[in-house]
Specification:
Strand order of the largest sheet: 7-6-8-5-10-9
Number of helices: 10
CATH topology of the largest domain: D-Maltodextrin-Binding Protein, domain 2
CATH superfamily of the largest domain: Periplasmic binding protein-like II
Number of domains: 3
Amino acid sequence: MSPTSSPLILGTRGSDLALAQSALFRGALESAHSGLLINQKIITTTGDARTMMPLHEPTAEGAGLFTKQLQEALLRKEIDVAVHSLKDLPVETPPGLTLAAILPRASTADLLVSRHHGGVAGLPVGAVVGSSSPRRMLLLSRHRPDLKLVPIRGNVPTRLAKIVQGEAFDATILAAAGLVRLGHDVSKGSLQLAGATLLLESLEWMLPAPGQGAIAVEARHGDRAEELVSILHDRMTARCVEAERLVLRYLGGGCQMALGALATESHEGISLKAVFIPSAVTSLRSAYASARSPSRVARLVADQLLSA
């Protein structure tokens, strides 16, 4: 079947970041397949509709908060591909679906976005930092136990606006990749928004969520779309994020587990480092290993974290 035989239906969430990521994928796929027609369908997920659901308190209902409805639309054949932030995807792919492509990874860094100079060290005692990520909150609390860490909801522009307003939050933590995809130049160390200056600090000590910075494209297994999309698959990125996500699986957790993991390709194969905080009252555990395969290195790291 030729790429021009019928339009490909692309499913995406309607947030600014989701639309920006879908546009990146769409442009790359259209460049790879001349004449391919792509129609876009916006799908509202549970996480979009239930804005008061606490992301920092994962429940069975919360599993796949930003992905489940897209996957269901794929299985009902209402769409042909779904574009996700990989870090939002549960580690288990539903039967009948496959990750047809993982695009080349962007920055994995987390950035402190603050109204105050001096980064984390410059935050006033008792400053309020908004985050709905247990990983970010627990790691930050190890550096500054005096800070007040509170949940924050909303898409990236909404969170930035809350910091600009300064009524409830002094700072938040956001992924550098998301800010760049939304058109912000993070290399300058600051953002100018609504007449306010927000200061940025790269948190080098804060390991990212598994899969952070990567865009995943899901399709039905064996479908025409799987073959079309596979041309965009980046093998090196895929191997690294597979190792990170396998650690999550081996620990028996989901997207809201306080786990930071970062894998890189090296002469030894894959090098993987991770940090894990089981709960607010337990100490931080860290691990590192290198191995040839994603599954082997993930198992080595997970075993270290479990036995610490």
